[in-house]
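User: Hi! Is it possible to get a structure for several chains at once, not just one? Here's what I have:
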Amino acid sequence: MMPIEEFRGLLDVYGGDVQRWPETKRAEMEAMIASNADALSYLTEARALDAALDAFDVPAVDLSQRVLDALPMSPVEKLLAWLLPPAPQQWWRPAMAAMMPVFLGVMIGFGGSAGETTDWDAQEQALLGGISAEYLE
Amino acid sequence: MRAVAAGEREAFQRLVCLHQRPLFGFAQRMLQDPARAEDVVQETLLRLWSRADGFKPERARLTTWLHNIAHNLCVDSLRRESRFAPEETGEGGEPVHWGPSESEERRRADALLRRALGDLPERQRSALLLCHYQGMSNREAAQVLEVSVEALESLLARARRTLKKELKADDAD
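Assistant: Yes, the chains can be modeled jointly so their relative placement is included. Here is the combined structure:
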């Protein structure tokens, strides 16, 4: 049979619940309880502590939404969140985004026509210059 | 976990539902402060999201890995608290809201246990919480605390002995 101090030490590690005791020691510990009054007293003490610990309850909480809201957003999600704001005060954002194609179209239109004029003039001068030189010869 | 590492939010949400309660139980009993415990759980789960590809299933179970993160965050929080703590009031954290049928005796016993748990050195408290409340084996709890199984058993034994002494001393008063 195991020494009483070893039994006590095992109770300190595993508590008074038989299911938590190591399988290799369980039968020996149970035999100890059946035959030794001190062992039974130590077990009662260990079970009292287990019961006190079990009484320390923690309320259930649901943090799912909080955690999901705190997830970092991808660049696409950031853009969508900016474009589709929840508050009416920020609705200028989708309005501005809707105007972007028009604005870009106007910019390209002006920029493109100005550039073409310059190019044509230069080409025309180059061509005419070449012809006059040939005639002069 | 592979789905979480690939950025699938639905898979992450399932893991959050599965692990948030045990993690909150651990953090709340460690810190005895619901607001800080919620912060710890949130940060633990966000790290699960951002570091999912660093999880090695062959080395530890997911719950062990998460408790290791939560434990380290609790330790950080306790260190910050001790740095900025106001003077000790003698009260053991948040009061419990018992129903009207709960006796004064039970309230007192609960307050005593909370105070005694809170007074345990951090390693001993962690070891006891992981084994008693989180249902971990000594080997898993040792992994969480990054100590040997023998060291974990020593922490458990010292924690239980101290608590028994505290509870006995109160009975004697």
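Helices of chain A lie at 4-14, 23-35, 37-54, 64-69, 75-83, 92-136. Chain A has a mean pLDDT of 83.

User: Great, thank you!
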